[in-house]
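request received
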Amino acid sequence: MPTYIKLTQDGLTTVEDPFTFVADDDQYIPPGDVILSLARFQTDGERLLSEGRAVGVRVTADETVESLAYDLPRLSVVALEFPKFRDGRQYSNGRLLRERYGYEGEVRAVGDVLREQAQFMLRCGIDAFEPADGSTPEAWAHAAGRFRHVYQRAADERVPAFVLRAERQ
Amino acid sequence: MYRYDTIDKEFVADRANEFREQVGRRLAGEITEEQFKPIRLMNGLYLQLHAYMLRISIPYGTLNAAKLRKLAWIAKTYDRGYGHFTTRTNLQLHWIKLKDAPDILEHLAEVEMHAMQTSGNCIRNITADPYAGATSDELDDPRVWSEAIRQWATLHPEFSFLPRKFKIAVSASAKDRTATRIYDIGLAMRRGRNGELGFEVMVGGGLGRTPYLSHTIREFLPTRRLLSYLEAILRVYNRHGRRDNPWKARIKILVNQLGAEEFARQVEEEWAKSDHELVDLPDIELARIRGHFAKSFETLPARSEAFEAAKAADPEFARWTRHNLHPHKAPGYAIVDVSLKTPGLTPGDASSEQMELVADLAERYSLDEARVNYQQNLILPHVKLEDVPAVWRELKAAGLATPNIDLVTDIIACPGLDYCTLANARAIPIAQQIAERFADDEKAEEIGELKIKISGCINACGHHHVGHIGILGVDKKGEEFYQVTLGGSGAEDAALGTILGPALPYEKVAEAVEQLVEVYLRERKDGERFLDTFRRTGVAPFKEAVYADVH
Amino acid sequence: MKGLTANRLIDGEVVFWNAGEWVERFADIEMFEDAAAAEAAEAHAKAQPTVVVDPYLMDLVEIDGVWIPVAYRDRLRALGPTNHLQHGKQAEGGKVVETLQHAHTAARSTGRINLIKRK
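response:
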């Protein structure tokens, strides 16, 4: 079974991936838990969910999470696809999922995912990663924990500098 | 000025460590150049024609003696003893080695400086009025808000991979000394009906291939809502700005495609959905930041006899005070502009020795403050009038007392093809040739305010679109040609220039500028600046003069 | 005629290819009459990502008996900035440097496509 990195109670660890990604042109949907494109989810999602499967949706950078809003409580995974390292649209999608829609399932970064993005991704509510650079969970954790401080609130629990300062005064 | 606390110090230290590690991975071949490039750019490190170039951030153009001395030392130790101050009030060092860059970042951190976000598709260094805290015409100190923005924007998790770079300028005076209208976001402080302070929010300005002046999307934003509103703008841009074509990726394109009204509607809608209190700084933090900028001035008479006597005794000094001195809010003080535009030399360049001298003067005479403005000059913001003659003598001895602020020789020029891989043509030698033709101080004074701005390519780092005379280097079959525009302005009467005519060859540019100035001197009416005359006469007489010999 | 150039990774220095070595003086560049040989050298260079950045072939032209780059940009890389003649490779002087400095007009912009995307 393929693996990926996930933020769990024990920190960032390698976990097995129970989901199969179903491409849009795949005629056959394998048994078990699946991740679908947004379009595929709109046609087949209802049926698969009613079969008792866990279903995730893979959102491209061109798509917005608003279109998933009503379905979020039923989704096990939202996979945010980074077409390029430098394409930052999914950071907004991540924050919206967590902060605006209160989504509590897994938000997974897929695509051109490098450890340089680790902190940004975690801060934007992404808690699962399929690194394209072969990063280990240790390397990922190292990169994510590189900065002892942050200057702004985001979708994570980190306390920004201005709050720490106010508390100290 | 703002001083780092432990948090800020640890932050830049962490950043320097991170970069050291990343450089190590690159040198070891663990990451490719393609992967490394965005990383080094986020730390201000470019690979240019002759070497790496490090762009060091000078937040809202504010320096003190320790910082200037460190910059001078870095230039001497790791570069070739000089640096180039840019139109974004940063300092560029042109001869940097990759292997030294992590050490340099550590040295910068020692004086609370960094090179973060001086490149890359992120929120860049904030620009503020260079006379902040010194000029009498400001509603508030724009550095307070600039520093708040700086911290909020630093490694912002959502906005570090925007469609394109993003620049913010803050002004708090009716007089616009920061060219706010050509910024992605320009913030101009206004007073509301009940006396409270707020910002006029202007979005979508920018030069480059498609120049635009910004649109006001909100007439009045209460100051304390600044960051949450910026976050809403950036979110709309991050999600909907074009990413398919880097030439169409700036926010100005989005704003103009949607229309300013629709863009404003989307921002307001996004802003309405967000919890402002989570983003905006609490009063206690704003007060802390503000405290750093408080300055107390001595009680002095408004007139200094020593200063007046020096002016009367020395016409050269008197001339310099006419152009390089500006009124200060405190009686008996002046703001001193230090010109980095000696005719014949490189606009914006300063040697390590010159930086050290300005550091000394800042420490002795200007309450330990110096500034950089977008015209690529330095400023000593708080000099007692009685000290001005001494300051002038020392500046003069170091070649820093050219009396030409806003005059024809106060030319903005980007590094151009002499250094930059993006350039199509050289900018520096053109500036040198023009300045040499007007090197006579009397002649320059007679001509009056005339802002010449030169860019070596369409990216417009030299702001040519908003020059009274703008000069753009273009490549015609491998040869350097220059397109001239007239009538632009980056000030409160902002305007984009009009193209004069076909591009001119390298050899013809300085002569053409001389011809333009002659037309102006012939046509001008009482008190008119070059820009006023141009606006009255239109392009025709100027065009005729420059292209006369072509017919 | 072509020559191969790049910037050295560790310090950014402009370097030129000569028989498998990277040299700093343009006067020491290897000239390729044969396109296949030039491309083979370029392929070698591209396989050295920890040594050089952005290797590319530049066109050369003969002026006053000296072969120099066609593109003005490449000439500046072989010289240094024109506002500081004491900096860069030009400081050393010599016939090739002088030819480069005085050959303004014959420039064409081929070759710079490789560089223009660089930042």
